[in-house]
């Protein structure tokens, strides 16, 4: 599907979708719990559909209601389905791989064309070092894993934090007489490990960790208890209407965001303030507006690489040189987001440069109209839609259906749908 975005002022009140990171973690933990979990107000998106399908095939019974998922768990070990298809969901792939490795039957994984290019090699090497049988071509799907998880000590380099999150969540369920010791020489996206550890802490799971997360020790033999409660709003998704407000002036008020949540992408509001926006919090809602010019600058996105596309869009409207740095891992997402944002913004008249670990934007305060390609990457699509709102002429975006992976409804908002009337 292609969508034409006509430049306009973007403002209103918006109910932010639920967090993908929280929803997927809760689904997988609930699947490997003996008992019934209630996940209230989960994200409804294509990635979550993929995760629900995987959890069901792993043995959970999931009852879907309008605002609740009821998950009847199956216990500690996976049952052997034929092939698990994770669709476009990298989070589901990496986390479910580790849970599947707890069983003693082979479990195979596949996914869409983008997933087939996303390597899980460091995670698979670590699982192999823990006694798991692994079969894969260059670390990409199709992948087959087969336990048992025997434990031991392994080194895990983490260009994406999801490798470490996967092992941290699955290791407590390994056999009672095992222990998993992880040495982490390199870790990107540290806030997502804070998020993962918050679940271990809530479950009273025993583990030891270095203060800098360079080492972990996790005994086996634990059990997860059922999870209940409301899924927090998604700061990664909130970045796009927030950046649309920054580009056009706003104000935009975003509802159902917990400022104390451990999601790293809440950093977007700090970045927008540094670029000249006004950000006002009122409990679980935040209002973003701008009355003066945007400021260029240098911003380190190592902890929050998913913010690169949205920040690149805002930087186009800040006169001067903006550098988004220390973010080489943005190249290993659904697309090479550094190269893609340089190329697509270039089609709208913006001069950008790429570095191995950075994107340099030479902002002029405006963009031309034109045709751009979302490259089947949800965050690229939404960033281009936000940028189009401030262009001089309409922008046609190819493949806008990709936004449904995490934020169904954002493209309609950008195209002119009336925002929510939030309480």
Structure report:
About 30% of the residues lie in helices and about 25% in strands. It has about 425 residues and is α/β, with parallel strands linked by helices. The chain has two domains: about 200 residues, Enolpyruvate transferase domain (UDP-n-acetylglucosamine1-carboxyvinyl-transferase, Chain, Alpha-beta prism); about 200 residues, UDP-n-acetylglucosamine1-carboxyvinyl-transferase, Chain (Alpha-beta prism). Strands 2-15-17-16 form a four-stranded mixed sheet, covered by helices on one side.
Describe how the helices and strands are arranged:
Elements: E1 2-5, E2 12-15, H1 20-31, E3 36-40, H2 46-57, E4 61-64, E5 68-72, E6 83-85, H3 90-100, E7 107-110, H4 121-129, E8 133-137, E9 140-146, E10 152-155, H5 162-170, E11 179-183, H6 190-202, E12 208-209, E13 215-219, E14 228-230, H7 235-248, E15 252-255, H8 267-274, E16 278-282, E17 285-289, E18 298-300, H9 308-315, E19 320-325, H10 337-346, E20 351-355, E21 358-363, E22 370-373, H11 378-388, E23 395-398, H12 410-414
Parallel strand pairs: 2-15, 3-14, 6-7, 10-11, 18-19, 22-23
Antiparallel strand pairs: 1-23, 3-5, 4-5, 7-9, 8-9, 11-13, 12-13, 15-17, 16-17, 19-21, 20-21
């Amino acid at each position: 599907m292609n969508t034409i975005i006509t430049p306009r002022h973007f403002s209103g009140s918006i109910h932010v979708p639920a967090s993908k990171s929280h929803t997927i973690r809760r689904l997988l933990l609930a699947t490997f719990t003996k008992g019934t979990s209630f996940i209230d107000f989960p994200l409804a998106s294509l990635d979550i559909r993929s995760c629900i399908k995987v959890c069901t095939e792993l043995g959970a019974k999931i009852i879907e209601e309008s605002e609740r998922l009821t998950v009847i768990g199956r216990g500690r070990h996976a049952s052997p389905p034929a092939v698990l298809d994770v669709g476009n969901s990298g989070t589901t792939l990496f986390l479910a791989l580790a849970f599947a490795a707890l069983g003693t039957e082979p479990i195979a994984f596949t996914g869409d064309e983008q997933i087939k290019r996303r390597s899980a090699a460091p995670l698979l090497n670590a699982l192999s070092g823990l006694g798991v049988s692994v079969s894969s071509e260059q670390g990409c799907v199709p992948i087959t894993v087969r336990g048992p998880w025997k434990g031991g000590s392994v080194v895990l380099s983490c260009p994406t934090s999801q490798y470490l999150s996967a092992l941290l969540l699955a290791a407590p369920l390994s056999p009672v007489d095992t222990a998993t010791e992880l040495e982490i020489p390199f870790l990107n996206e540290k806030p997502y490990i804070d998020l993962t550890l918050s679940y271990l802490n809530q479950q009273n799971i025993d583990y030891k960790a270095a203060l800098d997360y360079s080492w972990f020790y996790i005994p086996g033999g634990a059990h997860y208890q059922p999870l209940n409660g409301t899924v927090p709003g998604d700061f990664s998704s909130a970045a796009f209407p927030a950046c649309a407000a920054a580009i056009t002036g706003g104000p935009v008020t975003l509802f159902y965001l917990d400022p104390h949540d451990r999601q790293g992408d809440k950093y977007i509001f700090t970045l927008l303030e540094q670029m000249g926006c006004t950000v006002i919090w009122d409990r679980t809602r935040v209002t973003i507006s701008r009355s003066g010019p945007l400021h260029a600058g240098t911003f380190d996105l190592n902890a929050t690489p998913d913010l690169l596309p949205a920040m690149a869009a805002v930087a186009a409207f800040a006169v001067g040189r903006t550098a988004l740095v220390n973010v080489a891992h943005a190249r290993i997402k659904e697309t090479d987001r550094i190269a893609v944002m340089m190329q697509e913004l270039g089609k709208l008249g913006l001069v950008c440069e790429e570095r191995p670990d950075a994107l340099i934007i030479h902002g002029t305060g405006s963009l031309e109209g034109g045709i751009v390609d979302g490259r089947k990457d949800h965050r690229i699509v939404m960033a281009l839609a936000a940028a189009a709102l401030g262009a001089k002429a309409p922008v046609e975006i190819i493949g806008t259906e990709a936004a449904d992976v995490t934020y169904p409804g954002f493209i309609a908002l950008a195209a002119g749908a009336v925002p929510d009337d939030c309480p």
